[in-house]
Amino acid sequence: MEYVSTRGQAPVLDFEGVTLAGLASDGGLYVPRAWPSFTADEIAAMRGLPYAELAARVMAPFVGESLSPDRLLELTREAYGRFAHQAVTPLFQLDQQNWLLELFHGPTLAFKDVALQLLGLLFEEFLGRRKDTGADGALTIVGATSGDTGSAAIDAIAGREGVEIFMLHPLGRVSDVQRRQMTTVLAPNVHNIAIDGSFDDAQATVKRMFGDPEMTGRFRLSAVNSINWARLMAQVVYYFAAALQLGGPDRKVAFSVPTGNFGDVFAGYVAARMGLPIERLIVATNVNDILHRALSAGDYSAGTVTPTAAPSMDIQVSSNFERLLFDLGGRDGMAMAEQMRGFETSKSMRLTNAQQQGAASLFTSARVEPSEMTATMRWAHEECGETIDPHTAIGLHAAMASDLSADVPVVTLATAHPAKFRDSVERATGQRPPLPARVGDLFTREERYAELPGTYEAVRDYIAEHATPSA
């Protein structure tokens, strides 16, 4: 399996290479040179597999020769052995048509654990391999989070040999539970940075750092955000898991995905390209609706981020959207690079006809207002006995408002445990969800983080001072 950059100028890498690289050197994102696919019979043969075995089966074509099948299975069993539910990503039925795919049973109570528990093991595997051969194994991870990526990545990386992590989050714009899940991890290889700005500011800083020769020359940088292909690959698995339980591949299934950075729903697109019969992918946004405007009207124009009760969706620049545009636009790296340069200069871009038409064949989108989000949280609680978080409510509202045929099951991705957003849930339902026992002492733990201005220079200098040079 070979990986190419969406902008066409970075070196072609294997799976180990893209895992350690994260962002491509030309500013693009890595994707497989060609999509692997399964036949209907091969997909049907996956029914009933334990989650770790299903994960190894689905991911094997992407891994190629970087890991043996036996070693990949060992890693998936270790990664998903820490989850609080034996099914790892269980389905919960709400009514005749609507289901929730519970992705929050990992150690930090969010869907990011499904990918990042594995990614931490992959980093350790590949770095250890390089160290054994005399190559420099030091790795500096730099990431930005709107809430859940940070805690999941830190949990996966804390204490691992040869790797350190610097995680940026927007000061005051994540929930208290999200913040504490990051800032109470006091391992020496973990560095939390709160910046005075938005998630988009933090993400722009990270992307700029990967293109800064001064930093890339001194440090071996890598990423844990969904710009890292290995993380996105791991998220493909739960689309297969849900569809198989609901009759796939003999029956089509639709998915509604609360979306910010587009990685989670792009994983659904990858599953479809691999042969999984998906009726529709519903891209559910809040009032920060750049993706809804792009998919419904071809207008990918960034506005000002509006803080909401669903902070993980408070994004105006969705990095992974570039992967979709590249694939739908004929995989022309030069054209993609030009299109993205225009967007990065003007913060405005029109999708081409090919991109719009290609997206319309699988995707629809919805913008969900705060009142609709709250009403959906209340409905799930009162009518179904299920407490859901604000992000899941946005996805569920979009699912219930869709025009899908009644015989098509619709799976909403439940991306976070409701206890991560206790204030919002309590306002909507009158009930304050308790923290699960495994994180019940969160508010008694010591916090540690740095507060910095939201400028590239401030963050760069801090990391340069605290990170371990690669040579």
What is the tally of beta strands? 15
Question: Can you tell me the CATH topology of one domain?
Answer: Rossmann fold
Mean pLDDT equals: 94
Strand proportion, as a percent range, falls in 15-25%
Low-confidence stretches: none
What overall form do the CA principal axes indicate? globular
InterPro entries: Ser/Thr_deHydtase_PyrdxlP-BS, Thr_synth_N, Thr_synth_N_sf, Thr_synthase-like, Threonine_Synthase, TrpB-like_PALP, TrpB-like_PALP_sf
Catalytic activity: O-phospho-L-homoserine + H2O = L-threonine + phosphate
EC number: 4.2.3.1
GO biological process, one term: threonine biosynthetic process
How would you describe this protein?
The chain is α/β, with parallel strands linked by helices and 471 residues long. The protein has a domain at 91-109 and 229-429: Rossmann fold, CATH 3.40.50.1100. Helices cover 44% and strands 15% of the residues. It is built from 19 helices and 15 strands. The strands form four sheets. It has a six-stranded mixed β-sheet with strand order 3-4-14-9-10-13, sandwiched between helices. Helix 7 (176-183) links the parallel strand 6 (163-170) and strand 7. The longest helix has 21 residues, at 112-132. The chain is globular and about 60 Å long. The two termini are 30 Å apart.
